[in-house]
Design brief:
Homohexamer. With about 700 residues, the chain is an alpha/beta fold. The chain has 24 helices and 20 strands.
Length: about 700
């Protein structure tokens, strides 16, 4: 009959500019797809060079090496008798495009450039690429000689076309095009395309996965058809974690689901589906058929190949499944853990060092490392040879097998409690107990001697000795003395990261982990160049509220009972003198706002695009039961003053895992000035006028 088609969607852990590794992973995915009977293989967006090349896309080397990899793929026997769809940048008539290159048996069938480019949030595709604006138009692309020598072709079709095989018709979308209001799959489906493909470079954001799944399923719910989505996975060199979730959908229902978080570098999803199910589904949608009769047809590239076998009556086909979504707490446990593993193995370091204060933020960071150790041991238990090889390199032991997360944690994770005269015994005990329960190599040290030495130098030079405010000092003295402690901790963290393993007779150095959350960064409640200054920060894009829920998740799922007392303790920096041996300083009192309020300010500022006046207008309604308009005005003004005074700190913020859409990351995601007129005179006057009117 020729109706049961077998197709494959891949999630690959590609790495920007790692052409050799990327090629090897592409080959592995093709081998797996063929071994499972697939006749069409779809890979992630820009998989040959890796999605995150950024300004390296400007370099001719990136184009050259991409074509060299393509030549290797074309000439290999491994790519025979399967349609391969790979992603790479292509220069056409001196314009750079983000393209799919689709080939079969050493012949390029079509180069399909991206039509809608992603250019919001973390995406900057318009900086490097130009969208293809010629709908349903195909031009000749003159192949470079390195490809001509393999294919025997001088030119190939380049543009917006679809593939017509012996048994069906396929049309390509690329990532953002699925999210666009005028997605190509709408018109392609009306023109008889039965299989839609989407190669993505879509990164993880908390609570985002369901949106992607809903878009894929809705793409075929109204129009019928088969939708195949491939996505990159892992950390390919920056703050983003691409979260896989390869999937295959038919007629509005998911039939195959890939993992969102895993340490597998190559994941291939294969499904066998009945084309007649698509045709019968479409047959009864009269509105669709009326629209189809008037559609402007796509150019069709004829392909002498079938995705089905002629005798396939007895071939079993896939049935719909229920998609399982992770809870936000599971996402925090798994996403940053996988990102840390990629960063650790690819940076070729020997582990992590974390200043562990006994508070929620550093404890959450420690739990994420512990979760990473769990994932490594589980992957090795399941036979992942890549993870085992990486673990052996990291611990410098060719015979090592990670089986117990606590034992592995002891080898690769060092925690350090840096006490001062302002530290309480409670936080010291909490840090020590948590370190024991996760298995980290724990160090206790005291920084008072270093603090006295630094302050002593200042006093010797100036003849003045600063005092804390509780001893009669000014607010400026008080803040300076807090900052000295915080910055000394940063210096010591790097010293111990470089030399701790040396003192233990072990090779290598450690990556320093930061643990400032997204809310504190937004408010600027951190010392510039303190322990928030580190190599990477797995929680820098996560709110305090979500971190508290994650801590509770760890208590229940990892049996880390030490976290109970950490949860119940009020957050404190412990930088001011104790009162009767007890902590007098608390974060929320210092900030002049609660963490819950900060999360709301952050979402309104970034996601709702609210300036001071608009934020005030929204909050007088949201908070009408708990605050007067004048109180709301005071809170909004205080937030914007503190935010603008401290915005300069975001320019040096440690690279953090991107998890929230209200992140204040100044590198790429949240572009703002860092020198403000902090009086906001015009804006605040508008608020005052409205308050008086109310």
């Amino acid at each position: 009959m020729g109706r049961a088609v077998s197709v494959a969607a891949c999630a690959l852990n590609q790495w920007a500019l790692d052409f050799e590794g990327n090629l090897e992973r592409i080959f592995r995915s093709i081998d797996i797809a063929k071994s499972q009977g697939a006749r069409y293989r779809l890979g992630p967006e820009l998989e040959i060079c890796g999605y995150g090349c950024s300004d390296h896309y400007y370099e001719s080397d990136t184009l050259l090496h991409s074509f060299q990899v393509l030549a290797k793929l074309l000439e290999s026997p491994a790519t025979q008798n399967i349609i391969c769809d790979v992603g790479m940048p292509v220069l056409h008539r001196n314009v750079r495009y983000n393209c799919r290159v689709i080939f079969l048996n050493k012949k390029i069938l079509l180069i399909r450039p991206k039509i809608s480019l992603a250019n919001a949030g973390n995406y900057r595709e318009l900086r490097w690429f130009t969208p293809w604006n010629k709908a349903r138009h195909v031009e000749e692309y003159f192949l470079p000689r390195i490809i001509q020598e393999v294919t025997g072709q001088e030119t190939v079709p380049f543009g917006d076309a679809v593939l017509a095989t012996k048994d069906t018709c396929l049309g390509a979308e690329i990532c953002e095009e699925l999210w666009a209001p005028n997605s190509p799959h709408i018109e392609m489906g009306l023109d008889g395309v039965e299989i839609f493909t989407n190669s993505s470079g879509s990164h993880h954001v908390l609570r985002k996965a369901h949106t992607r799944v809903d878009l894929v399923n809705s793409a075929t719910a109204k129009n019928g058809g088969i939708y195949i989505l491939a996505n990159q996975k892992g950390c390919d060199g920056d703050r983003l974690y691409y979260d896989g979730c390869a999937m295959i959908s038919m007629n509005g229902e998911t039939v195959a689901q890939g993992s969102q978080f895993s340490l597998d570098d190559v994941e291939v999803l294969v499904a066998t589906l009945d084309l007649e199910d698509v045709r019968s589904y479409r047959a009864e949608i009269s509105s669709r058929n009326l629209a189809a009769s008037k559609v402007n047809p796509y150019p069709r590239i004829k392909v002498n190949f079938a995705l089905s076998c002629s005798d396939d009556v007895a071939v079993p086909t896939c049935m719909p499944i229920q998609w399982r979504h992770h809870s936000p707490e599971e996402e925090i446990s798994l996403g940053p853990a996988c990102w840390l593993w990629d960063y650790l193995r690819r940076s070729k370091q020997a582990g992590f060092l974390l200043p562990l204060s006994g508070g929620i933020d550093s404890s959450a960071t420690a739990c994420i490392v512990y979760s990473m150790c769990h994932q490594v041991c589980l992957a090795v238990k399941n036979g992942n040879a890549d993870v085992l090889a990486d673990a052996r390199k990291i611990v410098n032991d060719e015979t090592y097998v990670p089986e117990d997360p606590r034992e592995f944690c002891k080898r690769i994770f060092t925690t350090c409690y840096m006490a001062s005269e302002n530290s309480s015994q409670d936080t010291c005990n909490r840090a020590k107990l948590l370190a024991e329960q996760i298995g980290s190599y724990h160090i206790n040290l005291n920084i008072d001697a270093a603090v006295k030495a630094i302050v002593g130098i200042f006093s010797m030079v100036t003849g003045r000795t600063p005092r804390f405010s509780v001893f009669g000092g000014s607010s400026r003295e008080n803040l300076a003395l807090q900052n000295v402690q915080a910055r000394i901790r940063m210096v010591l963290a790097y010293l111990f990261a470089q030399l701790t393993l040396w003192t233990r007779g072990m090779p290598g150095g450690l990556l320093v982990l930061g643990s400032a959350n997204v809310d504190e960064s937004l408010r600027g409640y951190l010392t510039k160049y303190d322990c928030s200054s580190a190599d990477i920060n797995p929680i820098g894009g996560i709110s305090k509220t979500d971190l508290k829920n994650f801590i509770q998740y760890c208590i229940e799922n990892f049996q880390l009972t030490a976290l109970g007392s950490i949860m119940s303790a009020p957050p404190t920096a412990e930088l001011e003198p104790l009162v009767d041996g007890q902590v007098a300083q608390t974060d929320e009192a210092d900030m002049g706002m609660t963490y819950a309020e900060l999360s709301i300010y952050g979402k309104l500022r970034k996601i709702a695009k609210a300036g001071p006046y608009s934020m005030f207008c929204k909050l007088i309604s949201m908070w009408k039961e708990i605050c007067t308009p004048r109180e709301v005005a005071s809170k909004v003004k205080h937030f914007f003053r503190m935010y603008s005074i401290n915005r300069h700190k975001m320019t040096t913020l440690t690279p953090s895992y991107h998890a929230e859409n209200y992140s204040p990351d100044d590198n790429r995601f949240d572009l703002r000035p860092f020198l403000y007129n902090t009086t906001w005179s015009w804006q605040f006057r508008c608020i005052d006028k409205q308050v008086n009117a109310l």
